[in-house]
Amino acid sequence: MPEGYLPIFVFMVVALLFPVVAIVAAKLVRPSSPFATKLEAYECGIKAASSSRGRYTVRFYIVAILFVIFDVETIFLYPWAVRYQSLGWFGVAEVTVFLVILVVGYVWAYKKGALQWV
Amino acid sequence: MLDTIFFYVFALLTIGGAIATITRRSAMHSALSLIVSLLGVAGLYLLQKAEFLFAVQIVLYIGGIMVLFLFVIMLVNLDQAAKERQFNRQWLLGLVASVLVGAQMVWMLNSAGVLSLPAAVPAPAATGPGNIEALADLLFREYLLPFEVASLLLLVAIVGSVMMAKKTS
Amino acid sequence: MLVNFTPPSASEYIRVLPEILLTVGGTILMIAEGLAGERHRRGLAPMALAFLLLALGGAVVAGMDPGPAFNNMLTVDGYATFFRLLVLIVGILSVLISGSYLTRENADSADYYALILFSLCGQSILASANELIMVFIGLEISSIATYVLAGFLRNDKRNNEAAIKYFLLGSFATAFLLYGVGWIYGVTGTTNLQEIHRFLTSSESVYSPLLVSACAAMMFVGFAFKVSAAPFQGWAPDVYQGAPAPVSAFMTAAPKAAAFAVFLRVYSIAFSGLTERWQPILWVSAMATMVIGNFAALRQDNIKRMLAYSSVAHAGYVMVAVVAHSEAGVAAAMFYLASYAFMNLGAFAIVTHYVGKGERYVGIDDMAGYARQQPLIAALFTWFLLSLIGVPLTGGFFGKFYVFKSAIDSNLIWLTVLGLLNSAVAAYYYLRIIVVMYFHEPTNETGAAGPVPAGVRLALIGSAIGVFVLGVMPSAVLEFANRSAMLSR
């Protein structure tokens, strides 16, 4: 057991248990009588125009994949940030080259209109 | 002792999530189960003191790649997909093939003595810089070229995904 | 922790000069289109050419001062320089034939050239990679750029099919390679090729040869896919047929040569101690690749598909040289890949021009009477096809000669016999095109291709000179190959 992580593990387990216990307990206690009217919009709620399970536009996908790529970029910066001082200017230069290449990709995607919504 | 308990908790999450991923009828439920499985793996990384991999697992896999999965699932017509047969006709062949390859791997690992290794030696107590610091020194010094070239790989990925997904004007 | 860290020296930067120039060139191209606007699209191909020529010069400069770079991640030796120059020349020829094609299809774009440059950068890394991590990254850069190129004409269904097939199968194959890399790291504790070799041949190290063979087998899946060797050749015909013709030309030459370069390097250095384990598998693969490629090509009516199967068959011949596992075999593979690059690019250059807008005329019968309309081009096509057959005085002849000679020297008599029989079979389908061009009456529809654009003409001249030089005075190239074939262990 790595020292210092015990609270985190306990936290994770409690966090996982909490919804499970809540849902199971509620299921045991509450009365169960489902009928269709219960699922409809309440009072001034707007009736659903169509199923929400339709197809979404591909733009979501482009944004998502750009997010993943820049997410990867960010994760590479974590170790650099931790070791920033001892890596010195050489480390800064390395990270700059890394970022410049990716910024080119960002600018390119922007110019292509990949981030435009309409 | 506590270590073992946590190991089994995370292992259960990983395997349970994985089984749910491949057995749920709704693709959305599968994706959500996969998150549970990945979370279990993240916990296992932390148990192994691999803090950086833990961060990667949370930030990248659960935070990034799962978002991508969910968007891709929303791209396809879910109502239609839920009505279709969930398994194609090759499932038996696929099962046989995976069992065979799996058995072969177990046999190989076993004959190599990997499976009968003595109980793992406890990891040496951390002295000096931690895992991420050591990784930073490796990544930015010894492996600086792969690090830089990785940015080119990401750039090509940006170009490829945008070009493939964008509507042609 | 590395305490005594010294930043890389200037000569190490020079050793990666081609990669740096290609990256800079590609990014400038990506930005330039946005800045210059639509009107300056004519300047894109010359710009890409300029960067490629610079990178070619960079590769020469880098080759003059051989040695390792960046903590042994790369090693710039004669072998690396040979393959760097080869892929860059293929890149130049491909860009030359692409300009007019893209204009015809109304798809001029800087992205196309940028992707070619990036793909070449990945291949240049592969040529010099001395570390499995670099192998993986280089392979991925090269492959992802090629996946996108294969589907470049987004509105063409065949392009889309090619791209998606190539992408899905290619990713799966690379996963096997990566899994093999992971296992080999688990067994040996290193990803450096020389250190793997040292570990596997040292009497002190404890390991299971079975497990290492499994690693070699998994990495074989990845490499065999990239070079389209049996049984992982299934994607090749569909992808080469579906992709835009200039891209097919590029794909059959450059990524394949780079993949063979790294395949040979990994197997001759890291796994050289386990030859008796992987040699029989590669033997079967080489045999199957030749047979499948040649016999399937016999039955094709589509010229791109036929050239695709022919490309599989030629990969089989190179596999023979890999199986030989000797310095002569490495040199033969290098020579063969160079001569194949030239003759194949020449043939594809003509196909690129001939197919016309929307790639309508892809049938072999569409070439009927071509010799009467374009006697010079038809003669050149005949020259390339004869080289693909392996007729003396062409580069193809010496390529086959050296490959089979190295196989005989390594006592692979049966494989040589099979290879020679296959070459005889191959003659049939190449000759068929020549017969159709010279002795069939032209049909009404054909001959719409018109005059040959300057870029294609230049590429044809370049390829023809390449085939000629390799066919008439092979000694210069072969000597260089022989000198560089000794890979440092």
In the predicted model, the low-confidence regions of chain C spanning at least 5 consecutive residues are none
Total strands of chain A: the figure is 0
Determine Rg of chain C (CA atoms, Å): 22 Å
Q: Could you say how many structural domains of chain C there are in total?
A: 1
Strand order of the largest sheet of chain C: 1-2
> What is the residue-mean pLDDT of chain C, rounded to a whole number?
90
Class by SSE composition of chain C: mainly alpha
CATH superfamily of the domain at 56-118 in chain A: NADH:ubiquinone/plastoquinone oxidoreductase, chain 3
Distance between the ends of chain A: 52 Å
Percent of residues of chain C in beta strands?
Answer: under 5%
Major sheet characteristics of chain A: none
Helix content of chain C: over 70%
Shape category of chain C: globular
CATH architecture assignment of the domain at 56-118 in chain A: Up-down Bundle
Number of helices of chain C: 20
Distance between the termini of chain C: 27 Å
Give the low-confidence spans of chain A: none
Q: Can you summarize the main beta sheet of chain C? A: 2 strands, antiparallel
Task: Explain this structure.
The complex is a heterotrimer of chains A (about 120), B (about 170) and C (about 500). By secondary structure, chain A is an all-alpha fold. Chain A has a domain of about 60 residues: Up-down Bundle (Methane Monooxygenase Hydroxylase, Chain G, domain 1). Chain A contains three helices and no strands. In chain A, helix 2 packs antiparallel against helix 3. Chain B has two domains: about 80 residues, NADH-ubiquinone/plastoquinone oxidoreductase chain 6, subunit NuoJ (Four Helix Bundle (Hemerythrin (Met), subunit A)); about 40 residues. Chain B is built from seven helices and no strands. In chain B, about 30% of the residues are buried. Chain B is globular, with a radius of gyration of 21 Å. By secondary structure, chain B is mostly helical. Chain C is mainly alpha-helical and about 500 residues long. In chain C, a hairpin with a 4-residue loop joins strand 1 and strand 2. In chain C, helix 3 runs parallel beside helix 5 and helix 14 packs antiparallel against helix 16. The mean pLDDT of chain C is about 90. Chains in contact: A-B, A-C, B-C. Chains A and B meet through helix 1, helix 2 and helix 3 of A and helix 1, helix 2, helix 3, helix 6 and helix 7 of B.
